[in-house]
Amino acid sequence: MEKAYDIDTVERKWQDRWENEQTYSIDNDDPRPKYYVLCMYPYPSGPAHMGHVENYTFGDLVTRFRTMQGYGVLSPIGFDSFGLPAENAAIKGGASHPRAFTDDKIKELRASLKRLGASYDWRRIIQSHDPSYIKWNQTIFLKFLEAGLAYRKNAPVNWCPGCQTVLANEQVLSDGTCERSGDVVEQKALEQWFFKVTAYTEELLQMIDSLGWADFVKTIQRNWIGKSEGAEYNLEVKDHPGKELRAFTTRPDTSFGMTFVAIAPEHSMVADLTTPEQKEVVDDLLARVKMSTELERLSESGNLDKRGAFTGSYAINPFNNKPMPIYVADYVLGGYGTGTIIGVPGEDQRDWDFAKTHGLEIIRTVQPPDDFDGEAYHGDGVMINSDWLNGLPYKEAVTKATDWLEEKGIGERQINYRLRDWLVSRQRYWGCPIPVIYCEKDGAVPVPEDQLPVLLPEDVEFKPTGESPLKFNEGFRNTTCPKCGGPAERETDTLDTFVDSSWYFLRFCDPFAEDKPFDFSAVQKWMPVDQYIGGVEHAILHLMYARFYMKALADLGMAPKELREPFARLFNQGTIRWQGSRMSKSKGNLVSPGDIFTNEGADALRLSIIFAGPPEDDKDWEDVSLEGCARYIQRVWRLAQGEVATGEDREENNDDKAIRSDAHRALAKVTADFERWSFNTAVAALMEYTNQLYKYAQGNPRKKTLDEAIDILLLALCPMIPHVTAELWEARHGSHIHEQAWPKVDESILAAQTVTLVVQVNGKVRDRIEVEADITEQAARELALGSQKIQELLNGAEPKTVIVRPPKLVNVVA
Ligand code: ANZ
């Protein structure tokens, strides 16, 4: 492809200029209406990959578009720079130190974001590992601690008996053994730090409705919170008066179908209920459960036979006073509900499977449709086999059964949530130190604020022991108690990196503040984020934690109290794949943006990704038409440089009117498409318009019309291809396109409801006429045949056939 201009030089020229002139820097007292665009700040893993390119291209498009619309746009960038990969690189010898590794990667990523043409307020850069960020991260931790939102408790961790240490999940192999010693990893309870997310469960749930997020993300959030309404009730243990189990169920109506009871392996009564004869099988099961993860336990596959053991005891079903065998079953979780379930195989599939393998009876209590068989029935229906509930629709039976439990004093209505508090401590080096000191006399003492930040020591042994490397650094660990001055030890765990990303969007509002995490007025000015952009992999944890932080900070008086939600609108882009699979170095299918920047250019790459499909869809690299987009940009160049035509000064004719109408229609469509994140259709509309414009230019264009039409094209394209449009605009006007206003659509043109009627002679387009959208067939024929151009072409001859398709086409066969 012959290049009309030197892409690399032009793009770099503008990138330097945007950086030097701080085109997208914005002050907090900017008078324009505010708009806050934020792409999830990246983990610095080296030069940008295609995922980054997509994410930051969309963000940049929105930034430039909103700026042209007259908003004062805050568009910051930073780096989520703590985390495992940097530490692992140091462990594996790929880097001298996590800090050196991280700083290098940041440099590389920063350079490629600049080379992509992404424009930020570079003054506002935040890095999670900067002392200034650590300081405020720790200050917030201490505020949480003071308010009871941070606390310490025993929690199960992976424990390797061979190495005598804690392992991260990543260090446990899929067969449940330690990656180093090969020993079977156990679950062991250790003291850990938590954030009390559950203090906000209901608000986190209620406010989901108010968010401008995709429905599926809202559903993921709702399911994660997992509110379920049901009942808890007591079941007496047979032959042990006074001994009771308590079960949680969302379907008390099914109680007459109960054929067993199951308790979690962690249930406090397991040993108590297990008879001597059953001790061996129960112990066996407990040993196996110790090795499995919660996910494995909840999965519906696997050998169910091995997953339950009879305790030898029975519980009395209060609904019919029949004895039910009590099992220990791994699919009952210790941390949910009461850790005891009623086994109702007729309506619950896992209970069905369990009953089948253990030879337990199955009694249906909701009448399934006639042809239904072979599995549990979850649908609607009326009650059967249920004594005084028979004949009721099941929903009414739920209420009646619950009322009965409450009247008899056997049970109560109960709401349960799946959401758990957030375990924030990590036995890792490359993270934010937890600012707590342990003293024999005073216990856990917060580090005084004037001693913050607590920074990481540099000289640390990274070799994995499973325990925090900080533990072995005497200089860091040993300190004095801030209260009594006696010898004390620092906390050696560090904070989960999700802590860092839970409030960085607030710090962006005021990264310059030295004496506080951020100024209230700055946050009041910019928050909430108007458009948040990021991958769907963050649909649960990051978004939930950030929402929790916002509420907690507001309640602690650290953020404006009316600010409850951080992200007003959220967009989750799809991923770019290679023949259906993930692009990765190990698969050798990585397409490097770096080469494309120098060959086809950042503009072509940006445009081709925008054009490849709806932004939310996954795309395959094969569908990205880089070459096509590069060629398109060359065409725009030739057109705007006057290589096709410059036009002449004359009165406006029908052709001019038609192209002007095309321009404003395209502009109206692009504006609307940008608003609704339909970027690919905006590109399609502009490409079609460019074709019309090219043809117009090749005819007999009028200078004034051609100029306006090209200007509209450049302005509409510039959020997507910012470099080439800036270069062309400068050549045409001597000014900076990124300081121009978004062009106004001439509403009178749209209001006229006219369309372009294309007149072809023998299949070739010979004329275009603006007509009313509701033109009749007869009128269209007369107009077309009466056109001066067509008359000249026909030169008096009678056309053979005239095909009329109002309002868009008349085809004359001569
Ligand atoms: C009988 C029943 C019949 C149930 C039926 C469901 C459907 P959600 O809705 O997610 O809250 N359950 C209770 N505690 C459990 C635990 N600790 N571990 C595993 N499962 C537990 O789920 C509540 C339902 O999950 C409860 O209602 C119980 O099964 C089970 F047609 O009781 B159900």
Q: Can you count the beta strands?
A: 31
Assign the structural class, choosing from mainly alpha, mainly beta, alpha/beta, alpha+beta, or little secondary structure. Answer: alpha+beta
How large is the radius of gyration? 34 Å
Helix content: 25-40%
The backbone outline, from C-alpha atoms, is globular
The spatial strand order of the largest sheet comes to 2-1-23-24
Question: What's the end-to-end separation, in Å?
Answer: 38 Å
Spans where pLDDT lies below 50 across 5 or more residues: none
The ligands found in this model are: ligand ANZ
Number of helices: 27
The overall pLDDT, averaged over residues, is 92
Largest sheet, strands/sense/barrel: 4 strands, parallel
The amount of beta strand, in percent, is 15-25%
Care to describe what's here?
This protein has 814 residues and is an alpha+beta fold. Helices cover 36% and strands 18% of the residues. The strands form 9 sheets. The chain has a 4-stranded parallel sheet with strand order 2-1-23-24, covered by helices on one side. Helix 19 (602-611) packs across helix 20. The longest helix is centred in the C-terminal third of the chain and has 22 residues, at 654-675. 42% of the residues are buried. Bound molecules: ligand ANZ. The site of ligand ANZ has 21 residues, from strand 8, strand 9 and strand 13.
